[in-house]
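Deliverable D2.4 — example input (structure tokens):
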């Protein structure tokens, strides 16, 4: 799954056809569900970047329940995701994400990023929900099976799109079979992982120290 991630390098976000980002942008080191996240898509006026609520609410939802992740294997089958997968796909830029590994009664946090430390693009879907005057445009991060590196921590990871697939992911003309093929696990050889402070467990803490490497035995003592 993906329940926490980082985006701090606005200047490194590159995508063919993307106009200059004119949204307020603050470096984020502990992005959590229900918060606003940057997403890139055609929202009806051509390709642009917007802040969306992380937790996709299907447009037909009665209770307004949001889904932070959508499994690649069930995108077409689940009503909560199928329509957005067909018509409302997006890219969610990130500089890395967190995952936890259980050690006895404790869960130790690790930071996972590209081996060259370049920004990543998560595959996502979005939708707009309306209820009695309230309008929420939201998104979910698509997950896939973990690669050999991430599987040491969890059996799922975000579906990360390489540069050559990003434009096609947003293109309505791309075939369904090709879209699904893009959601394969990102190669483990292109990623690295290291332990970080357990301060990341607190969503109200958001600073660059959260992605600093620490000794694995210290991750719980730095809370």
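Example output (designed residues):
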């Amino acid at each position: 799954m993906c329940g926490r991630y980082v985006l701090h390098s606005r200047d490194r976000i590159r995508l063919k056809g993307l106009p200059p980002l004119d949204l307020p942008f603050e470096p984020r080191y502990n992005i959590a569900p229900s918060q606003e996240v940057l997403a890139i898509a055609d929202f009806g006026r051509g390709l642009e970047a917007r802040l969306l609520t992380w937790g996709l609410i299907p447009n037909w939802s009665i209770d307004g329940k949001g889904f932070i992740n959508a499994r690649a294997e069930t995108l077409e089958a689940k009503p909560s995701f199928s329509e957005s997968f067909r018509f409302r796909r997006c890219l969610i830029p990130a500089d890395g994400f967190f995952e936890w590994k259980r050690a006895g009664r404790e869960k130790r946090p690790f930071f996972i990023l590209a081996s060259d430390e370049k920004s990543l693009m998560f595959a996502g879907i979005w939708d707009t929900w309306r209820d009695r005057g309230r309008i929420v445009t939201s998104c979910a991060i698509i997950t896939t099976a973990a690669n050999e590196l991430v599987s040491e921590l969890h059996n799922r990871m975000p579906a990360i799109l390489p540069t050559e697939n990003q434009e096609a992911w947003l293109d309505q003309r791309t075939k369904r079979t090709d879209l699904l093929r893009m959601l394969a696990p990102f190669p483990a050889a292109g990623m690295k992982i290291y332990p970080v402070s357990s301060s990341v467990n607190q969503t109200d803490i958001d600073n660059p120290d959260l992605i600093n490497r620490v000794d694995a035995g210290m991750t719980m003592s730095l809370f």
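The two ends are 23 Å apart (CA to CA).
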